[in-house]
Amino acid sequence: MARHHALIPRLASFAALLAGALAAAPAGAQQAKSWQFGAVLDVAHTTRALELGGRDQGLQLGHSDLTASGPLGALATARLTAVFATHDGRLEKEIEEAWLETTRLPAGFVARAGRFASQIGYLNAQHPHADDFVERPLLYRAFFGGHWNDDGMRLNWTAPTPFFLQLGVEAFRGKRLVEETAESTGNPGIATVVAKFGGDIGASHSWLVGVSHIRNRREATTETFDGAHGHKHDHDHDHHHHHGAQFSGHKTWMIDATWKWAPGGNNRDQQVRAGFEAARITDLNRYATSRDRHEAQSIWAVWRFRPDWETGLRTDWLRVRIPHGDHFHSGRLRELSAMLAWKPNHMQSLRLQLTRQYDAVGFSRPASRSVQVQYVLAFGAHPAHPF
After folding, report:
1. For a tag site, which of 18, 200, 242, 321 has the least CB within 10 Å?
2. CA-CA-CA-CA torsion sign (108, 114, 116, 121)
3. If we measure between CA atoms, which residue out of 307, 244, 299 comes closest to residue 273?
4. What DSSP assignment string belongs to 38-76?
5. H/E stretch holding 350
6. DSSP conformational letter for 307
7. Which phi and psi (to 5°) does residue 251 adopt?
């Protein structure tokens, strides 16, 4: 309890930092003309930490950020995002985004270089504080550390078709996903190929489907997953916090599908959003057979029944092969979440969420019941959310 009380002055200091950034933004924006500045404060209280979760028990600072973005001449734009969050009673900070993107390549091509979030799946490219639930699905928490951003390059092509069609490739160092690797030859890294297509059906319906493939040359050090603490350790039991993937492999396939409905296209007053994501990871490491694989699925639905109120449900399944030296143990976990959110405007939201974890094998501390209260407050300008 003392540790959580010690966080209050830190949260107050961070709030003061956000206010200072907001006060400085108009002057900076005036000097830089088209440059924009923004900040987000994400605070949550959790009664019991979730297995593989990103939020500790008690009052914690979540994915809060300071962002600056704008043009660099006539040919490129740039963004810089610094993130602040608490873990184990300590304030952690890092540069989450620092990238340049072209604006005038021909034929529908766009290139990006620097540090940015991969566009795999439906949620990964989105900042976690913009999600509909307090915690991301088990799929993202287990396979991508919740939110995978890395150092690399991207090339996207948007086709000149009457429906949306985008193809993209990315190349990353991969160290932010798999920190410690087994001995390997060559130049280890991660490459992704992503295809997204979608469109509208009348004025009220819209849809988007994505297929992602990840080729990972970074083989994780042979480790044992410690379900009691939600991380991995090697056989000398040297525990450490791991921000990347808890379960990884050389080949990953993902599919996501999202459907949205709003009467007459007016999503401000009422909207239903529903989606499905699934991932399968194979070729886990040098000891794995063709039967050893990780799998996860997530199904969710959110209903905006009034302009300022939303409610939602999500169910997750996770099945993994837990590494233990030169062999594996089976692991599985299921999760069910229900949330109610009050959004008086697009700059703030107050969310109440109840989560239950069950059917656990290989995870020794699942949360049979966890209640989370989250408050998100945004200042200044922020990039538009994806579909």
Report:
1. 200
2. positive
3. 299
4. EEEEEEEEESSPPTT-SS-SEEEE-SEEEEEEEEETTTE
5. strand 348-361
6. T
7. -130, 130
Give burial (CB, 10 Å; 0-12/13-18/19+) of 383: middle
| pTM of the predicted structure, to 2 decimals | 0.86
85-110: pLDDT as tens digits: 998 888 999 999 999 999 999 999 99
Contact (Cβ atoms closer than 8 angstroms) between residue 67 and residue 77 = no
Beta-strand relationship, 36-46 and 251-261: unpaired
Computed over its alpha carbons, how large is the radius of gyration of the chain? 21
Question: For residue 294, which of 320, 318, 317 has the smallest C-alpha distance?
Answer: 320
Q: Give me the residue label for tokens 């791991």.
A: 242
User: What phi-psi label fits residue 108: left (phi over 0), alpha (psi between -120 and 50 degrees) or beta?
Assistant: left
User: Quick one: tokens of 157?
Assistant: 């092509």
Tokens standing for residue 350: 């107050």
Residue 131 has pLDDT above 90, yes or no: yes
**Closest residue by Cα to residue 54 from 138, 133, 146:** 146
Interatomic CA distance for residues 186 and 163, integer angstroms: 40
How far is 30 from 28, CA to CA, in rounded Å?
5
Length of the chain, in residues: 387
Q: 161-217, pLDDT tens digit by residue?
A: 999 999 999 999 988 898 877 765 456 699 999 999 999 999 999 999 999 999 998
Distance between the two ends of the chain, CA-based, in angstroms? 41
pLDDT tens across 325-382, in order?
778 899 999 999 999 999 999 899 999 999 999 999 988 888 889 999 999 999 987 7
Q: Is residue 352 within 8 Å of 339, Cβ to Cβ? A: yes
In this prediction, residue 11 carries a pLDDT of: 45
